[in-house]
Design goal:
Keywords: Transferase. Helices cover 50% and strands 13% of the residues. The protein is of the alpha/beta class.
Amino acid sequence: MGDFYQNGIVTTLHNLTRRPVEDLEQELVGFSKTRPMALVLPSLYSELEGPALANIVQELKAVPYLEEIVIGLDRASEEQYRHAMAYFSELPQNVKVLWNDGPRLRGIDLKLREQGLAPTEMGKGRNVWYCFGYVLASGRSRSVALHDCDILTYSRDMLARLIYPVANPAFNYMFCKGYYARVADGSMNGRVSRLLVTPLLRALKKVCGQREFLDYMDSFRYPLAGEFSLRRDVISDLRIPSDWGLEIGVLSEMRRNYATNRLCQVDIADNYDHKHQELSPEDASKGLSKMSMDICKALFRKLATNGEVLSTEEFRTIKATYYRIALDFIETYQADALINGLTIDRHSEEQAVEMFARNVMEAGNYFLDNPMDAPFIPSWSRVVSALPDLMSEMAEAVELDNREYAP
């Protein structure tokens, strides 16, 4: 059972009573009459071939309050898109599958590219951005939740708890971040959050001094959670990275656009497991190596936009400070694992920290060497200003794809 302690400057909504999901859903059905709800699912086609998504679909079939489910499908041929349409057809909600590799949506992407507005990098951020664009274009929903398609421990109460804070009209929250414990198969997971993000934020506080932005980021119990919800009005002005910096970018944008009393985090699961990335220490373009680079770059960019002046000397100090703090965290997590009967591989934990420390410096050098880098996808407000008809064209393209390739 979770505690009721409030840490940091962001409200934490705990799971104190294990309230039955049926109670939550009954309330959400009531909320849906004035605040219709959507679920966004960014997916690779390969996830349709794994065990996690099949269970997610079965759980979603029983969800009674969703107005629409928007699925962004990446890396799919025409045959695979047809299969995806059949795969998701058993869902009873209003379902739209965005074929991001199909000719119609490629045409939308080309129009954006001609204006310098298209996402420049393939990845989850790009997928989410197009899904959000469709949610705006459809105009059906006022509250939107997002979660990944590889959650092996998924149950529908995760979604209910995730969307409740932004769907309840009695609440003032514009954005809600999910959090949970990353424990599976007798071991503690979540290395990038445990061993990179939290110790790096603590190191930045030491080196840069007390900063409201750093206090804010350090308030989130699981800043890299792929699950969050928001009100539709939030989407128009979001500028997010297209790479693994998505979650850091979204949190940063929410602080820039809203007061912290409009933001919260919620406990959505006792246990959470999904597919694991390889460490990939020899290849910075893959696995946790790329993820850690993207996250560090996103943090450094956001620090700079908050007025922090960064230099090579400062990055050396940040790296050294991070390394010492991260090693101390390994001791902490090892003790936490042992008292809970879990295992931690001390050697692999230290290998991860060594790689993350190198990437902190590499990301810092990249930031300094590329001052004109524009890594964020433009906001949908800017897109509409440049191409006023694009949203209706996008909605039509999605509708035609779904009609033409329906099973």
